[in-house]
Write a structure and sequence with these properties.
Layout (H helix, E strand, L loop, with lengths): L3 H6 L3 H12 L12 H20 L1 H5 L8 H29 L6 H9 L16 H22 L5 H29 L3 H20 L7 H12 L7 H18 L10 E3 L4 E3 L6 H9 L5 H14 L1 H17 L2
Antiparallel strand pairs: 1-2
Helix pairs in contact: 3-5, 5-8, 7-8, 7-9, 7-11
Bound molecules: fe (ii) ion (FE2) (2 copies).
Length: about 325
């Protein structure tokens, strides 16, 4: 909620009014513009989690880079993994600019991740036991990300909107890459089709949870602030429905079965009616990093961070020398 009394004490109610008016006129906010504390806080939370999820999202597919069935698949998968890390880099820079007035850096975001204070997306805690998992991630996880990011690209915070425009172009390539793999498996042998169906069965609850639980309690208050400030324009439920309506027909067209015995199409509402997953599962997976691969991937990320510390130190040392020489 917007803390009006705290703002009043600081004599900033006028500024807040002007800020809200700017947003309502459809203007975008830049990093150096005045912004209320809760706007900054919500953006940091959202963008840091998004950036970290891009980086942690490279791990499930990275596991398949050495084992791709063909060279063509290896090149395409490697390009995708590199893109995801690049998205993380871009977004953490956006988050870092927002954190500057608070005296925090990008390294603090990473330390928060290692200490379990910063969460990453539920889907990236999941295992990828078969090649069909890599295909499914490209097709449906990136597909779900596109649904969310297309909405966020209209956000009121200009640096995030600009970063997202570039990211979405690459996410579309990822989705085509995933579709191509899924179609190849769907057109393949009985065993390949079974592998694809098995991956879909395992990933379905995680995909349903991708958009977050239905709005209530703390989540509702976060969303109220996000909606009021036009950081986002759709609820979790609206995004999930959009995903279901787009992909259920595609899943069926590929000859796969949607792993929901009760799903049906409501002709009047012109939408699919589906079974909600157990959202409590999210509390342990995201909240406590207790997903099947959470700890393993966090450990790998931490080792990479520690092993590459000398590179960061060398670059800082070089930058300091350049600054001191005045060149
Ligand atoms: Fe990405
Ligand atoms: Fe992607």
């Amino acid at each position: 909620m917007i803390n009006q009394s705290a703002l009043y004490e600081k004599g900033e109610t006028k500024k807040l009014e002007e800020f809200v008016n700017r947003i309502e006129r459809g203007e975008k906010i830049e990093a150096d513009d005045w912004m209320p504390e809760d706007y900054r806080k919500q953006l940091i939370k959202l963008i840091a989690m998004h950036g970290i999820s891009e980086i942690m999202g490279a791990f499930p597919e990275k596991e398949w880079v050495p084992r791709t069935p063909t060279l063509k698949r290896k090149l395409s998968l490697m390009a995708k993994v590199q893109d995801e890390v690049g998205h993380g880099q871009l977004l953490l820079r956006v988050a870092e600019d927002l954190m500057k007035p608070l005296g925090k850096t990008r390294e603090d975001i990473l330390q928060d991740l290692y200490a379990g204070r910063l969460k990453f997306h539920n889907v990236f805690h999941m295992p990828t036991p078969s090649w069909a998992d890599a295909a499914l991630i490209g097709w449906l996880v990136d597909g779900a990300a596109i649904v969310t990011q297309k909405m966020l690209a209209h956000t009121s915070y200009a640096p995030y909107a600009r970063a997202l425009k570039r990211i979405i172009l690459e996410e579309r390539f990822h989705a085509y890459h995933g579709e191509d793999m899924v179609i190849a498996l769907g057109d393949g042998t009985e065993l390949q089709r079974e592998m694809m169906q098995d991956a879909l069965n395992r990933w379905w609850p995680a995909l349903m949870m991708f958009f977050g639980p239905p709005e209530n309690g703390e989540i509702q208050s976060n969303q109220t602030v996000n909606m009021r400030y036009r950081i986002r324009s759709k609820t979790n439920e609206e995004l999930r429905q959009e995903f279901i309506d787009k992909y259920v027909p595609q899943i069926r067209a590929l000859g796969l079965k949607v792993p929901d015995d009760n799903i049906y199409y409501d002709k009047e509402k012109e939408q699919w009616v589906y079974t909600h997953p157990d959202y409590n599962y999210l509390k342990n997976v995201i909240g406590k990093n207790q997903g099947p691969r959470s700890q393993n991937r966090l450990k790998l990320r931490r080792i990479g961070f520690e092993n590459n510390a000398w590179v960061r130190e060398a670059l800082l040392h070089k930058q300091k020398a350049v600054n001191e020489s005045g060149v």
